[in-house]
Fold this sequence. Notes:
The chain is of the alpha+beta class. The chain has helices at 8-14, 23-29, 38-47, 57-62, 112-128; strands at 70-73, 77-81, 89-95, 135-138, 154-158.
Amino acid sequence: MSSARESPDKATANNPLKHPNSRIAVLTSHFTATMSSEKDAALAAAAAPPPADSPTIFDKIINKEIPAKVVYEDDKVLAFRDIAPQAPTHILLIPKIKDGLTGLSQAEERHCEILGQLLYAAKLVAKQEGLEDGFRVVINDGPDGSQSVYHLHLHLLGGRQMNWPPG
């Protein structure tokens, strides 16, 4: 007679979200409460860095393979609500085409236009969201910057008084 419940080892082996070395588990860690902090999520992502041209969870959002609450979109920028907000308003802005921009440290002169468009889109979204009293734009870069998804993205935070220093 077999048990209705699988053993933990078998369940882990059959579930890529629970297998610690799974790329899906690393990406999912950014969006779940299983990680104790952004720092832990960033360290997990840095431990298994993907090739620069490999798809990220943001590519899947751009391609509509994963749902997101989109608040702004134009031909080059997509903005959507963070599913683990750190402020009353927490929106991620991403370039629709990564073009090697896994992080700000990878920016080259050819990226100046998209970098400017991301910042201008952040201003438009802040106005749309009613953040007249101010907001913060954050770019995490690399393991020490707590970057957990290697596709350049801006965090637009607002709706409360921000603290200083931030980190």
